[in-house]
Amino acid sequence: MAPGAAHVGPETAGRPPEGDWLGTPFIRLERFEPFARCVVDRPERKNALTSSMYFALRYAVDHVNADDTLAGLLITGTGDVFIPGGDLSGQDEGGWSLPGLLSMDSVPFDALRRSRKPVVSAINGLCQGGGLMIAMLSDVAVASERATFRAPELFRGIADTNYAQILPRQIGPARARDMLFTGRVVDAAEALDWGLVARVVAHDDLIEASTAVLEQCSQTAPDARLAVKDSFDRYYGAYDRIAMDASLRGAEALEGFLAFKERRAPEWVPPSLRRPGRL
Fold first, then answer.
1. CA distance linking residue 141 with residue 153, whole number of Å
2. Nearest CA among 247, 218, 25, 52 for reference residue 139
3. Which among 86, 95, 118, 239 is least surrounded, fewest beta carbons within 10 Å?
4. Whole-number pLDDT of residue 211
5. Is residue 15 very low, low, confident or very high in pLDDT (cuts 50, 70, 90)?
6. CA 38: distance to chain centroid?
7. In CATH terms, is domain 27-248 a member of 3.90.226.10?
């Protein structure tokens, strides 16, 4: 077990977040002072985030900001997956429903936007949904040459107005429409060219390169850095929370969830365009 990693066992699996324990066995906080590394590790579900895992990432950002011994946070995944977004299979922990969580202030996105201490994403593989939002809202996103990116929310019946707000400001309206309306997969080289990520490095160099970026960020003046970050936050702007909440409770989101779970095309797809398997 890495230094600073929380012990995970039956006695901790149901315990709420406290200290370096993030409240779930699927995300661990490792200390390599003066930094912390948040590792998403749920290989049996391809790192899909449960509600507890979403909250764990939120808690980790706030926890690092409150710890005087830590200067910044690195977020990464395991295997060939960074973060694919929320788990739509219905397999969750803690009894929270994912749509219910997404309509609460429990996800990490706002925490990333306002984090006083630098946060760097080390994108080791597949990155989509909430994972891509985490990457974009990190202070710097460093991607492996093997990483891929996708925004599939509209295929799930979700009007993700946060994506509609952030993505065009990140890569421009034309490319944002392409990603949102076609669900295309973007490779690492294209992601760098578009501005989805800041740097692409050899896969085996990812953690070392990302840590070096975090070290560089941590040498900047904290108050001045936060003032600059506030300007970025105002550039991104506020998203339509009311519309997104309504969408998450709507019939299309329910059909999108069922279609994903049943590995089929949603009913709104014209019959002649339906293909076997999920979108």
1. 21
2. 218
3. 95
4. 98
5. confident
6. 12
7. yes
- For residue range 107-154, list pLDDT tens digits in order: 899 999 999 999 999 999 999 999 999 999 999 999 999 999 999 999
Tokens describing residue 135 = 């990457």
Cis peptide before 34 (omega within 30 of 0): yes
In Å, how far are 1, 160, 222, 230 from 29, measured between CA atoms? 11, 29, 23, 27
24 with 53: CB under 8 angstroms? Answer: yes
Taking CA atoms, 195 is separated from 4, 100, 168, 183, in Å, by 34, 31, 11, 17
Query: Is pLDDT at 103 greater than 60 in this prediction?
Result: no
- For residues 8 and 6, give the distance between their C-alpha atoms in angstroms, rounded to a whole number: 6
> How far is it, in rounded angstroms, from Cα 119 to Cα 178?
28
Segment 193-236, tens digit of pLDDT? 999 999 999 999 999 999 999 999 999 999 999 999 999 999 99
* Non-local CB neighbours of 107 within 8 Å, separated by 6+ positions: 54, 55, 57, 58, 101, 130
> How close are the terminal C-alpha atoms of the chain, in Å?
38
Residues 6+ apart with CB under 8 A from 131: 47, 49, 77, 82, 83, 84, 85
Tokens representing residue 61 in the block: 């950002």
User: CA 56 from chain center: how many Å?
Assistant: 12
